Amino acid sequence: MPDLWQDAMDHAVSLARTAGTLVREAVQNDMKEKFPTHSFIGEESVAAGEPCKLSDSPTWIVDPVDGTTNFVHGYPFVAVSIGFAVNKKLEFGVVYSCIEDKMYTARRGKGAFCNGQPLQVSDQKEINQSIIATEFGSDRHVEVVDKIFSSMRNILCLPVHGIRGVGSAAINMCLVASGCVEAYYEMGIHCWDIAAGVVIVEEAGGVLMDVDGGPLDLMSRRVIAANNKMIAERISEQIDACAPLRDDAS
Ligand code: IPD
């Protein structure tokens, strides 16, 4: 039987690559010209063998296309995510949800905004009145998938109002900042998926945590972003944690 959609899918993959390359080159070249002493960590540069080490020097942490699978399938949540750290501390974050045309921005100490409008996390304190965002991730090893399912089952049965996920870590974090969902957690993400969102969530009044309840470690590939510590801790208690290979492992 002929594969009707392979041609369309090949075209989508090539489009995704073209768009990603365009954004990556624009950001990387522009940044190198404008800030020649700065460092760069990005999904494509790391895939090309460049190091993924956060040093004290000003560092751009960039995902040109967060939500690649969405993009390939035309699922309408795709973002450009740009975080900026100095002395290993994130200073600003920009997430552009391209299809929705929503520009999320936050600078440390100066608030978080969407298209210029201030953002504030939800004031909900009850987990059973909360919506939690998460993703299934991209790891298909059965032991990892089992942990993802058992964590999700535990959280669903707390109970919570619902579980959602738009297929982009950066946009999920912006939804926490916007107050639409109380929290987002995931294991298996990368630093470039969440760096910008970290500042946006914090500046909207939210908190970040590791899935084990400790402080967030940007390179650990695990995150909880929540409207408050209470909700973050309730989620952390339910997570069957796994430890993906750290971003800075090699
Ligand atoms: C992915 C998305 C997705 C998340 C994955 C990420 P990518 O980023 O953020 O929502 O579940 O863990 O890797 O690959 O589209 O840049």
UniProtKB/TrEMBL annotation:
Mg(2+) binds at E43, D63, D66, D193. Its EC number is 3.1.3.25. Belongs to the inositol monophosphatase superfamily. This is Inositol-1-monophosphatase. PANTHER family: INOSITOL MONOPHOSPHATASE, INOSITOL MONOPHOSPHATASE 1. It comes from the Eukaryota. The keyword Phosphoprotein does not apply. It catalyses: 1D-myo-inositol 4-phosphate + H2O = myo-inositol + phosphate; glycerol 2-phosphate + H2O = glycerol + phosphate; 1D-myo-inositol 6-phosphate + H2O = myo-inositol + phosphate; 1D-myo-inositol 2-phosphate + H2O = myo-inositol + phosphate. It is found in: Cytoplasm. Its cofactor is Mg(2+). It comes from Esox lucius.
